[in-house]
Design brief:
Largest sheet: 5 strands, parallel
Number of domains: 1
Strand order of the largest sheet: 2-1-3-4-5
Mean pLDDT: 92
CATH superfamily: Response regulator
Distance between the termini: 28 Å
Radius of gyration: 14 Å
Helix content: 40-55%
Order of helices and strands: EHEHEHEHEHHEE
Length: 150
């Protein structure tokens, strides 16, 4: 069961949207927010969430740099990382997974889509994040999470 989430996101509108949808889906989940990669890494020195939702485009330290630093840190490398980005480029998706992201989610734009996405992500078995990651690999190429939106 997910009890705590960190959202690393520099866009205030995206933070508000995420916060509102998370509150609807799982009001019991504690949410911490940071708006740049350096603040994220400082937060993770003292606070370990059950899940990290990580934007790729952030100031000070981008999401790819954060993934690398997290995976190189023995006290953090087990933490599930969900890239949460508007970037749909195959190269970015592949790189994020290669660096150690467990899931790549393209940010939903509609409220109902975001609610559905969060419901599905939070209900996954995060005790074994690598098994989740394997579901999105096809012939050594990764794809973004499909939360059922057509």
């Amino acid at each position: 069961m997910i009890r705590s989430v960190v959202l690393a996101e520099d866009n205030l509108e995206h933070c508000f949207f995420f916060r509102k949808c998370l509150k609807e889906v799982a009001p019991e989940v504690q949410l911490a927010e940071v708006n740049d990669g350096e603040k994220l890494m400082k937060l993770l020195e003292r606070y370990l969430p059950d899940l990290l939702f990580l934007d790729l485009s952030m100031p000070c330290k981008n999401g790819m740099e954060c993934i690398t630093e997290i995976r190189e840190n023995r006290s953090l490398n087990f933490m599930p990382i969900i890239v949460f980005s508007i970037n749909t480029k195959n190269h970015s998706i592949q790189t994020a997974y290669d660096l150690g992201a467990n899931l790549y989610v393209v940010k939903p734009e509609q409220y109902t889509d975001m609610v559905l996405c969060l419901e599905k992500v939070l209900s996954m078995d995060w005790k074994n994040p690598k098994s989740i990651t394997k579901q999105y690999a096809i012939h050594n190429s990764y794809r973004a999470f499909n939360y059922g939106i057509t």
